[in-house]
Amino acid sequence: MGITIQDIVYVRYQAPDLDIMQSFLEDFGLKLSARTERALYMRGTSSTPHIHITELGTKPTALGLGLLAPSYAALEDLASETGAKIEETGEPGGGVCIRLTDPAGMRVEVLFGQDKLQELTHRAALTMNPAMPRARFGDVQRPMAGPSHVVRLGHTVIHTPHFRETMDYYQKMFGMRPSDTYYAGQKENMIGAFLHCGLDKTYTDHHTIAILAGEPTGFDHCAFEVVDFDDLMLGNQYLLEKNHSHSWGVGRHVAGSQIFDYWRDPFDNKIEHWTDGDLVNDDYEPVHTEVGPSTLAQWGPPLEFESFAKLSRFSYED
Ligand SMILES: [Fe+2]
User: Fold this and answer.
1) Distance between CA 297 and CA 310 in Å, rounded?
2) Residue 168 φ then ψ, to 5°
3) What is the pLDDT averaged over residues 101-105?
4) Residues of the chain with pLDDT > 70: what percent?
5) Does 266 score more than 80 pLDDT?
6) 196 pairs with which residues across the strands?
7) Domain 7-115+148-313 maps to which CATH number in 3.50.4.10, 2.70.130.10, 3.10.180.10, 3.40.1190.10?
8) What angle do CA 32, 37, 40 make, to 5 degrees?
9) What are phi and psi of 150, to 5 degrees?
10) For the residues 88-110, what does the mean pLDDT come to?
């Protein structure tokens, strides 16, 4: 039952002004890939045609996500299992997809056969010089100031009051596996699950989708990988200079270990830059931890009180 998805492809939002969204996302480090009357498609430096889509619509909201199928045959299996049709995407980048809705109510598009674009160039990751072993000799560090260079979409986190059902859905339907999980109060009261793509021995991001118990339904945030730590910090400086709204960071997470920096786009969606994340495979042993400020970050400023209070209050019922 189900298929094994390979990665997340994009996140899809709705907003009332595409110019404002494009301007912010360019400051954040994404590049314009395509734009139509109705939608904005932004890319990273990788070959994926677009990793952030905004559809024009009155109400700002998160609509859903795209996932990568391993083959056309897998899409056919998914079509016969769900009764959904394989359709042309009808969007820049082409390819075909199956359109589903997860138990949280988010749109899930499972894709195959999208075009690959020419990768965009960016500077190489800096060679750091730790106390030991030394790695840089006779060379200086001079990364250029400016927006971060977003390479790729790493993950999204879905908020839903249907926590258990949604977590089960991504595991059964898409072969995802728990990396780390969190509870509030009693151990049985699981309120967060970080899921990786179940690629057997192949290493993949610690989490590609995470599910958090909570309301309202939507994305808690989406998260984009940048080149390295200096790229994240120079992006932080640039976004501050442009008077964008900072949310949380800079710090280092526990689950996934990423160095993170959270922002708000002009429509109040939380959006993350990250670097230096953990890679896991199916041998990874999940850890079940009580949620709390110190379990979400190893170092960094305190988490916005509201976010933490929401999580720790939540109690899911079967
Ligand atoms: Fe994140």
Assistant:
1) 17
2) -65, -40
3) 97
4) 95
5) yes
6) 177
7) 3.10.180.10
8) 30
9) -75, 125
10) 98
Alpha-carbon span 27 to 9, nearest angstrom:
21
Whole-number Å distance, alpha carbon 253 to ligand 1 midpoint, is: 9
Q: Report the chain's terminal Cα–Cα distance, integer Å.
A: 23
Dist. CA 208 → ligand 1 center (Å): 9
The residue extents of the domains of the chain are 7-115+148-313
User: Can you tell me the distance from the alpha carbon of 28 to that of 271, in angstroms, rounded to the nearest whole number?
Assistant: 9
- What's the whole-number average pLDDT of the chain? 95
Q: Confirm if 252 and 300 have CB atoms less than 8 A apart.
A: yes
Rounded to the nearest whole angstrom, what is the distance from the C-alpha of residue 206 to the centroid of ligand 1?
11
- Measure 54 CA to ligand 1 centroid, in angstroms: 20
Residue 140 has pLDDT above 60, yes or no: yes
- Which residues pair with residue 182 across a beta bridge? 192, 289
Q: Tell me, what's the pLDDT at 317?
A: 45
Distances (CA, A) of 256 to 63, 73, 101, 211, 276: 25, 32, 27, 14, 9
**Angle 100-8-187 from CA coordinates, rounded to 5°:** 85
Q: Nearest Cα to 5, choosing from 118, 116, 169, 225? A: 169
Within 10 angstroms of residue 177's Cβ, the number of other Cβ atoms is: 19
